[in-house]
Amino acid sequence: MTLPIRHAPVAIVGGGQAGLSVSYHLKQRGIGHLVFEKHRAVHAWATQRWDTFCLVTPNWQCDLPGHPYDGPDPDGFMRKDEIIAYLKGFVAKVQPPIREGVAVRRVERRADGVFSVQTSEGDYTANEVVVASGGYHTPIIPRMAEKLPGSIVQLHSNQYRNPAQLPPGEVLVVGSGQSGAQIAEDLHLAGRKVHLAVGDAPRCARFYRGRDVVTWLADMGYYEMTVDDHPLRDGVRDNTNHYVTGRDGGRDIDLRRFAREGMRLYGALEDVAEGSLRFRDNLKASLDQADRTYNGINAAIDKHIAEKGIDVPVQAPYTPVWEPGAPVTSLDLAGSGITAILWCIGFRPDFGWLDASVFNGAGRPKHRRGVTREEGVYFVGLPWLHTWGSGRFGAVGRDAEYIVEVIQRRLGADRLALRVAG
């Protein structure tokens, strides 16, 4: 039996905070649409975060459309269960026309200019398509993982939940971005012996001169800076996030302090060969560069304080509390005591289902504030789509509103044409 093809003026792919924000603004304008989510709304937050996960930005930055944070701790950092409750509250407010458990398998433009949207529950058509599925799709696990013995438990960061999940023994965490640094801390605080292969992620202070660094940067206008105004321009989209934590009220993550307390630090993991882990001789350079970024951000805050004549306590620059000794570039795996490896080296985007000329040679979307050169195709929720907060709760709603304004102009004002049909 052939099912009839249903039509939606706007098809939104992804039911996280980005897709829900687009739905909110479309509903405000009476524009018909459907949200397709292959799992359930806000699925990733509930299923791909560890148990002690919390925001690294203060709660006051959570400002989804029509749903600002209104809890008792605006300067705190919501934990996993609180984040999920916050997002479920947003879903309840938006009441989106969402098709949960429906995967979008292919989107392509037909000869008549309308988009064909092929899904796991049948075919749809749409005038406009908004990609709101984020950019973190395929967990990165390097080919060297295949050389590890089967006795070693291997997990990606999105599979890690808590230390008890891992077998007894020591743990190697590969990568020191936000996830790697926080998971290494989680294991360290639980008393596990941790080995950390340090990458090139920068770090920043949690608090400086009496205030959260995020608050200082907000006052300085950093979060209003657009990608076009940033010194790196589009290159900022490839930057690794600074590592810091909101855990226990918020604090710095200082890998040097962890090392002083017994964590083993190495340079970047390069290979597994002849039963040994091979590390790059760049640990000291990576730590030094992270500290330069840390002190550089604080120096920019110092300048702002001086220019504004703000009376706050003076704070000295960070000085290292530990220095690496002779570099360790090889570690015998059998004798190391390592029984588990956590790969915390990110994700690759996968937009293979979208047949549109909107990607660069690396498979990343080309756009200007989410609007692509192919009419009717948009992106929302990507890091630095327009500003630093584009991939976060703080600014995704503004980006969604901008996209919806573009869509409204394209579709016109005929509300009869803006209904979902079929």
TrEMBL record:
Database matches in InterPro entries: Auxin_biosynth/cation_transpt, CHP04046_FMN-dependent, FAD/NAD-bd_sf
Signal peptide annotation: none
Highest taxon above the source species: Bacteria
Keyword Transcription applies: no
Keywords of the record: Oxidoreductase
Iron as UniProt keyword: no
Protein's name in the database: tRNA 5-methylaminomethyl-2-thiouridine biosynthesis bifunctional protein MnmC
Taxonomic source organism: Methylobacterium isbiliense
Lineage of origin: Bacteria, Pseudomonadati, Pseudomonadota, Alphaproteobacteria, Hyphomicrobiales
Gene: mnmC
